[in-house]
Amino acid sequence: MKGYRISVLRHGMTEANEKGVYIGSTDLPLSDKGAAELAAKTDEYDYPRVHRVYSSPLRRCTETAEILFPDTELCTVDDLRELNFGEFENKSIDELARRKDYNDWLRGGKDARPPKGESLEEMTARTYKAIHGVITDMMENGLTHCAIITHGGIISNMLSCFGLPKYDAKTLSCDFGMGFDIIVTAQMWLNSQAFEILGYCPYDRLPSEEDE
User: Cα–Cα distances in Å, from 148 out to 10, 126, 152, 201?
Assistant: First the structure.
């Protein structure tokens, strides 16, 4: 049965990431350091050749796609955007540590919501819409290997909710420009709304003759 492979990758670093500040819906570009790190990773690792890149519409993701997959068609998917942190946006953990609403949110469940923000339950619902749309588009167009460029929270949530084998979301974190390969068949997705987690992406570069 035909399998559809997706390389799910986290965007590069922004200045807010460097400062340890919450950014979800805030549309920041890559920092100079973040762009340079991604360029270096393209020399260090083998990123797959893919038919299409599906990206969060936020600049840190589309700019990552342009660096990692410069000659590949780019399609933005609104539901791949990061969690909206509401009043916690653009604030550090140190700034928020004494706020009761912040600590209540950390201790809360999937329906806990930052003030004027979005709950994990709401993010999971739109993450399902996003991955369903990507898989459907790949199947309809015969695209056997594509990439998704999105955010760390989206990746861990997507893989923990819909991936097999089952992992806790906390074990599915990934560095900037890194992520996981997944594979799905039409039967697996339509019957179970699940995909298989294959391993890490990008791939370690094999030594060439010039390196030997």
Answer: 8, 15, 12, 12
| Euclidean distance between CA atoms 149 and 12, whole angstroms | 10
Pairwise CA distance, residues 158 & 8, whole Å: 10
Q: First and final CA of the chain: distance in angstroms?
A: 40
Q: pTM score, two decimals?
A: 0.94
- What does the block give as tokens for 67? 């660096």
| Dist CA 116 CA 52 (whole Å) | 34
pLDDT in tens, 106-159: 999 899 999 999 999 999 999 999 999 999 999 999 999 999 999 999 999 999
Other residues' Cβ atoms within 10 Å of the Cβ of residue 208: 7
For 80-144, the three-class secondary structure string (H helix, E strand, C coil) is: HCCCCCHHHCCCEHHHHCCCHHHHHHHHCCCCCCCCCCCCHHHHHHHHHHHHHHHHHHHHHHCCC
d(CA 158, CA 152): 10
Domain extent, residue 9, equals 3-204
- Whether residue 176 is contained in a domain is answered as yes
Which CATH number is 188's domain given? 3.40.50.1240
Does any domain span residue 45? yes
